[in-house]
Design goal:
heterodimer; A: 13 helices; about 70% helix; B: mainly alpha; elongated
Chain lengths: ~300, ~70
């Protein structure tokens, strides 16, 4: 059975890259989500002290952070993955959904809708990546019964399943937060398409909510965010600060950008979740994204070399 | 405030410039329909098969362990 390990290693490598992509998109979704819904209290303790100690930065993440005494605060605010690790540690469970309505933040409706839509498309993207992970593993596993399941593969699959369920819960919740989509659009829930059409042709027949909203493009969301993360990291790198976080940030940007170039499902004939990516990008867009992938990857290589020599 | 202990080419500055000069994506809308409800249904339908796969993988592991000890 040990000679099966070759194919095992192959699928593990593939799953790892999907898991990394799913994780960075999920983390971004969580940031958006926490802008709508304050993080629920962790199992014990005062929610507000918890939030101000480590959760609040997610809210301000787009803002220019003033220089504070606390470097950790700054770093967490800047790098979403540290935030998401904190988030994970707080272990929000599905039952938290029940309390969400009571604690919705006091934002204007259009902004809530905007954030809900953004979070939703991000969770959907994460779901499509995780779906691919599960389905690829499934077809690999059931192709022949003569396979070993290594601990690593098992851990990856369990993780993917858990994350899948978590994203699904969030997406279901957000979907319900967007009732106008159902009622006003015959072609229900064509969020991206319809909103874009509205803004492009200026002939909005939709509620004032969506008139005010920016059109939501998954690709644009991820692209802007990924470049922002790298930019911030470069600022720190040039000061020679927080190099470990810079490394993580560049890697995060890379996974994010690569995820929008991936042709999710459709090429694999596994299912058609494919509309979550690529369709909106033309060749020039793709070339530009590749250019950034190359230079960020190059930057990451140089940084790693620098870190190893110091 | 650039410390120029950077590699000879000064590429970190180039890198920052590249990021500062970034262009927006054009994002032609090919009219792709994004049917969230439909996708959600499909994802919901995957839950069972995901669970089955996880169970099968875990089982195959636990079946192999005993002989080792």
């Amino acid at each position: 059975k040990d000679n099966e390990n070759g194919s095992d290693a192959e699928i593990i490598a593939f799953l790892e890259s999907l898991a990394a992509k799913a994780f960075v998109i999920y983390s971004f979704a969580e940031v958006k989500f926490s802008q709508i819904i304050p993080l629920p209290p962790s199992s014990v303790g005062d929610p507000f002290s918890k939030r101000s100690s480590n959760g609040s930065c997610a809210i301000e993440e787009e803002d220019e952070e003033p220089e504070t005494d606390s470097n950790t605060e700054r770093i967490r605010g800047v790098f979403p993955e540290s935030e998401s690790i904190m988030t994970k540690m707080r272990k929000r469970s599905s039952s938290d959904n029940i309390t969400f309505d009571g604690v919705m933040k006091d934002l204007p409706p259009w902004e809530v809708q905007q954030l809900c839509t953004e979070a939703l498309v991000l969770y959907m993207k994460a779901l499509s990546i995780l779906a691919k992970a599960m389905q690829t593993t499934s077809s690999w596993w059931y192709r022949s019964q003569e396979k070993n399941c290594s601990l690593k593969l098992n851990v990856l699959v369990q993780w993917s399943r858990d994350k899948f369920n978590e994203c699904l819960e969030r997406a279901e919740f957000l979907r319900l937060k967007l009732p106008p989509m159902d009622q006003h659009s015959a072609d229900e829930s064509t969020i991206k398409a319809s909103q874009v059409n509205d803004s492009k042709y200026g002939a909005s027949k939709r509620s004032s909510c969506s008139e005010l909203s920016e059109p939501v493009f998954l690709e644009k969301l991820i692209y802007d965010r990924a470049l922002e993360i790298s930019k911030t990291a470069a600022k720190y790198e040039i000061q020679g600060e927080y190099l470990n976080n810079c490394e993580l940030a560049y890697a995060t940007s890379l996974w994010m950008l690569e995820s929008i170039l991936d042709k999710d499902m459709d090429s694999d004939n596994i299912g058609d979740f494919g509309s979550w990516a690529t369709e909106a990008l033309d060749d020039a867009d793709k070339q530009m994204i590749k250019k950034y992938i190359d230079s960020i990857a190059n930057r990451l290589r140089i940084l790693r070399r620098k870190m190893n020599h110091s | 405030p650039s410390k120029l202990n950077e590699s000879p080419s000064g590429d970190l500055l180039d890198f920052m410039k590249l990021l500062d000069d970034r262009k927006e994506l054009k994002l032609k809308n090919k009219g792709t329909k994004v049917d969230i409800s439909n996708s959600l249904l499909k994802f919901q339908g995957m839950r069972t098969t995901n669970n089955n796969l996880s169970t099968d993988l875990s089982m195959s592991m636990s079946l192999e362990r005993p002989s080792a000890s």
